[in-house]
Amino acid sequence: MLGYVERPLYGNNKVFLLPTDDLYMLAVLNSPLLWWHNWRYLPHMKDEALIPEDFRMEGLPIAEPTPETRIEVEQQASETLKLTSAAGPTDGRMHHPFSMFWK
What we know:
Layout: H1 23-29, H2 32-41, H3 54-57, H4 67-86
Helix pairs in contact: 1-4
């Protein structure tokens, strides 16, 4: 799962950071289609965690959307971020905030 933050963030060698505020990209990277692709394309670590290596992520086949599609997806992604932000801290269980958006 990929997330979005507006504050400084530090990671280790298992974290992949994209310096962008492109909500369309965030939504596409969290879509079931990309998860399907990445499950077959990216290397797997212990417990089946995926390794988003930079040279593989740079070559992801993501098509440029039409202007209408970009606007619609960005609006839905923005609303999803607002909803998850309003929910506050979680109890520690992982959830997929974009799952409601790709049904």
